[in-house]
Design a protein that fits this description.
Helix content is about 70%, strand content about 0%. The chain folds into three domains: about 210 residues, no CATH class; about 180 residues, Serine Threonine Protein Phosphatase 5, Tetratricopeptide repeat; about 100 residues, no CATH class. It has 33 helices and no strands.
């Protein structure tokens, strides 16, 4: 049990199973599940429905890391237990270290933040029915044949195409273990034929599709899995079949040799003592080998980059902005991408540090609003863009992005919530109720949805909700998609709609900095007073100083003064650039020298397009 205890702790504390839940609807399709007899009836009418239903139900609880870890561990323990039971039926030891390999494979897949739960449940269903069939106390040909066919059809109804594994494995056990060669062949053919008849008469799907349902060849499943996970699932099927086949053949060879000559009592005792010692040594060696193989395989498949991306995305989704910035500071070099950049910028805004710490982090223009330089359609882009455009006030584009995700990835609770809120802001209460009713069927978000429905009963437009009222004051009323104009045009439209839209203003200033248009920051300096700033944030102030220095004109600062610290820093940067010591240096070397003291400054970014060096 030490192996499974360690596995539970690893999935819970290191992998953080809740990150798998966060990936639903973003990196893979959302495992749709809803309570109620109506939904259950819809799911159970197609082949493999029970496994998919149960798998989707269990998937919801990955929302809590400890529960997700418990589910993964129990699935791994089931693989070990059922494989061991079959090995014991073949005359082997259920404690054989090889019985742990399917469990190791499951851990390896989750270490890469994959989610093969439905495939594993289908395989476990087949293994369970093989064990049940092999433990039937009576071995009559007719009775066994009928039970075999019934079991084959039942497994197909429960687990879809995984029933083929039951047919092959149980038939092989009849041939190798029970030594009924012709009977094993006949019932295997009958099992395949019975399943085919069920498909032919009752399943309204193509034959090929009916057979690979809930197998790694199923395109609906394989599209959400990486190549390694698909190979592990296929390899597990092959391994279990080959392992049991070899164990059965080994048992036949041993039984043929017989017990040999009778030994004296003394020699028998000595032989038993040696066997006991050998067994202890073998157990120790096998245990060390199991640990070594597990550690090596997990280290190979562990995706630390994906973990950091999912952690930051999860913090942003739950608006834990300080945690976003803390996690960003712990990122390894190769993890950074535009989506992490986007979440960091949102966190900087919400913590009041966008204007002062913008260049303390690596910046790309596309990371600000996921517009410039972004090609093609991306679910991650749509989800993150939906949240940001909703906050800014472009509800029409946020709604468009949400519908696209809904169409491509299913009823994601996150999207249902956003669509409900968008329609509440637009005073389309009945439409909002449709989405909230759908959300109330989710086992994790049902209480939240029902509370919001209750609030709508008392206040149909939620006029007492400050967040809703803020969005109403900021939202664009014209029906123009954000893709029809660039960041500057959009942000200016938002400011034209509401001059006190602070988020739109700060994002506009950040856009001007990232595009090197510091002169436009100077032109908008009057907005700082209107929005209630006590002082101009440092990065914006550096842009103003740089603009003044480059134009050699005194602009109208509308009563604002440049802080002495920023003025001194600008002079220091200029002096360092003109220092005779550095004249012979190339651009790359000068960049490294200046990065030491000016890593988080707009000066360094403007000159070298460099940021986030500290």
């Amino acid at each position: 049990m030490l192996f499974f205890s360690g596995m539970f702790l690893f999935v819970w504390r290191v992998l953080e199973a809740c990150l798998v839940y966060h990936s639903f609807g973003m990196l893979r399709s959302y495992p749709e599940f809803a309570v109620g007899w109506h939904y259950l009836g819809e799911v159970l009418v197609y082949w493999g429905g029970p496994v998919e239903y149960f798998g989707a139900f269990l998937s919801q609880w990955f929302c809590y890391s400890w529960l997700g870890a418990l589910i993964v561990t129990m699935a791994a323990w089931s693989f070990w237990g059922l494989t061991g039971s079959l090995v014991a039926l073949c005359g082997g030891r259920r404690t054989n270290v090889l019985c742990y390999l399917p469990a190791v494979g499951l851990l390896v897949m989750y270490a890469g933040y994959n989610h093969p739960l439905s495939l594993c449940l289908a395989m476990l269903t087949s293994l369970l029915f093989v064990v049940l069939y092999e433990k039937i106390p009576f071995r009559g040909v007719v009775v066994n044949g009928v039970l075999f066919v019934v079991f084959a059809v039942t497994v197909y109804l429960i687990a879809g195409g995984a029933s083929l594994f039951f047919i092959i494995l149980a038939g092989a056990c009849e041939i190798v273990v029970r030594r009924r060669f012709y009977f094993g062949l006949v019932i295997s053919v009958l099992g395949v034929g019975a399943v085919w008849l069920v498909i032919f008469f009752f399943a309204d799907i193509p034959l090929q599709q009916a057979y690979y349902r809930l197998l790694p060849f199923d395109p609906e499943i394989s599209k959400d899995m990486d190549r390694l996970s698909s190979l592990i699932i296929i390899g597990t099927y092959i391994f279990i079949f080959s392992f049991l086949l070899l164990m059965g053949l080994r048992q036949r060879i041993v039984s043929r040799k017989g017990s040999g000559k009778q030994r004296s009592r003394h020699r028998k005792r000595v032989s038993e003592e040696r066997a006991l010692l050998r067994g202890r040594v073998m157990w120790t060696v096998e245990s060390l080998l199991l640990v070594g193989v597990t550690v090596a395989a997990v280290m190979y498949s562990y995706d630390g980059n994906k973990r950091q991306f999912l952690r930051i995305s999860r913090f942003a989704r739950h608006e834990k902005w300080e945690d976003v910035l803390t996690a960003a500071g712990e990122m390894p070099e190769g993890v950074y991408n535009v989506y992490i950049n986007h979440d960091i910028n949102r966190a900087l805004y919400h913590t009041g540090r966008l204007g002062s710490e913008l260049f303390a982090y690596r910046q790309r223009l596309s990371g600000l609003m996921l517009m410039s330089g972004m090609q093609g359609q991306s679910i991650v882009r749509n989800l993150k863009g939906c949240d940001m455009f909703l906050e800014l006030g472009d509800l029409n584009f946020a709604e468009q992005l949400a519908y696209e995700v809904l169409e491509l990835k299913g009823d994601n609770p996150r999207v249902l919530d956003r669509l409900a809120r968008i329609n509440i802001v637009k005073s389309q209460t009945e439409t909002a109720r449709v989405f909230l009713n759908a959300l109330s069927m989710d086992v994790i978000h049902d209480d939240y949805a029902e509370r919001l429905i209750g609030r709508l009963e008392d206040d149909p437009e939620l006029k007492g909700d400050e967040a809703i009222e803020r969005l109403r004051k900021c939202m664009l009323t014209e029906n123009v998609a954000a893709l029809d104009y660039d960041e500057e045009s959009l942000l200016l439209k938002l400011l034209s709609r509401n001059r006190r839209n602070r988020m739109a203003f700060e994002y506009l200033m950040a856009y001007y900095l990232l595009t090197g248009q510091h002169d436009k920051v100077v032109k908008n300096i009057w907005r700082f007073g209107e929005l209630g700033y006590e002082k101009i944030p440092r990065c914006f102030e550096e842009a103003i100083v740089l603009s003044i220095g480059m134009s050699e004109k005194e602009p109208n600062l509308h009563g604002w003064t440049i802080s002495g610290q920023t003025a001194k820093r600008y002079e220091a940067f200029n002096s360092a650039g003109r220092n005779p010591m550095y004249r012979g240096l190339g651009k790359a070397a000068l960049k490294e020298v200046l990065a030491g003291d000016f890593a988080d400054s707009y000066f360094l970014y403007y000159l070298f397009n460099l940021s986030g060096m500290n």
